[in-house]
Specification:
mainly alpha; 0% strand; 4 helices; single chain
């Protein structure tokens, strides 16, 4: 197997890890936050933060580096329309994801403290949850479009 094919396979694999972990984490966090169980919210939010550090972050870094390397190795200028749009959407998703990570860490701390103390979640948790969801939707849809562009590589004029 050539180095190019190995990096391409790892790029595809890491994209699955990135989007799959993100979607799975969002699914559990979304429904856990509606469960009414502070204990469940504490466990889920703690695990979502862990998944982001263990899986999403390394995959996101590798995606950017391997994508740039693949484009260069294939001879595609970064100004190629599908590639430029992919990079823009990836950066948009990242711009949404960074504050989401910050929110998740704080939500996990609040949920764990509330579960430990046997109290309700503070109003700030619910405000963070709304921001978390609001930032998650555009990031997820941007990554879906990046997936399409990565596979289809449409030839635009």
């Amino acid at each position: 197997m050539s180095v190019y094919l190995l990096v391409k396979w790892l790029h595809v694999l890491s994209s699955v890890v990135l989007v799959g972990t993100g979607f799975g984490s969002a699914f559990y966090m979304f429904f856990g936050n509606r469960s009414g169980s502070v204990a469940a919210q504490a466990v889920i939010s703690r695990l979502v933060v862990r998944a982001d550090w263990w899986f999403t972050t390394p995959a996101a870094i590798f995606q950017l580096l391997s994508g740039m390397w693949l484009a260069h190795a294939a001879g595609w200028p970064l100004s190629t329309p599908w590639l430029a749009l992919s990079i823009s959407l990836y950066l948009l998703a990242g711009a949404c994801w960074l504050p989401v990570v910050w929110l998740q860490v704080r939500m996990a701390r609040m949920a764990n403290a509330a579960a430990r103390d046997g109290v309700e979640l503070p109003p700030e948790f619910h405000r963070y949850r709304r921001w978390w969801e609001g930032l998650g939707y555009p990031a997820f849809f941007a990554m879906l479009v990046v997936f399409y562009l990565m596979v289809a590589k449409p030839a635009w004029p």
